[in-house]
Amino acid sequence: MSADAIPRPDSPAEGLSAMPTDTPTSAPPSPPCPPAADTPAPSSAGPETPGRVDPAAAALPPRRPTALFMLAHPARWLALGFGSGLSPVAPGTAGTLWAWLAFIVGSIWLDERGWGLLIAISLAVGWWACTRTAQHLRTADPGAIVWDEVVAFWLVLWLVTPSGLGEQAAAFALFRFFDAVKPGPVGWADRRYKLRPGEAIGWRQGLGILVDDLVAAGCTLLLMALWRQVA
Description:
The chain contains 10 helices and no strands. It is mainly alpha-helical. The longest helix has 28 residues, at 203-230. The N and C termini lie far apart (150 Å). Residues 1-26 and 34-50 have low confidence and may be disordered.
């Protein structure tokens, strides 16, 4: 066949349009992705820190101690002074009077060494009892907890023995003054263990319940020693 017999395009553009091309046509736009489900943002506060107060628990009001409340847990028996802390008037004084009576009765069977051992055990177990009962009452230092008065006054009576009822009554009056008014070092010890903002009631507050009364006992013993020196 001659070259003239081959059909030719009338123009270059027409030839280009007739030639096949490997260039793909543009794909249709992909449909928009569905919105993701709402997921909670990671908390910047991190995991709960031990000793921090639970907001739900913080919203609960303090509990009122009653006889039924005391009977429901062994720690409450001890912390509430076997019921003396339930006194509607001056529970701290009632607890101290109970401690005085218990010391007089207990001295029938316990000697000086026995009282020392009992006081040491009472401090250790009392720390647990005061902590748990304060948590149950949802109050850092409830007035109904009187085990601190009991143990602290036992300590006073143990260290001033031998003594007559008159000297013990003077020790009672001095101890109640220091415990109630909290002058000087007693007030410092009381403030040292106060609940901090955002802090849950724990072992620190349970220890603080005991410490300020022990400082009050120390002040009482100091004045009793001075009195004996000048008497």
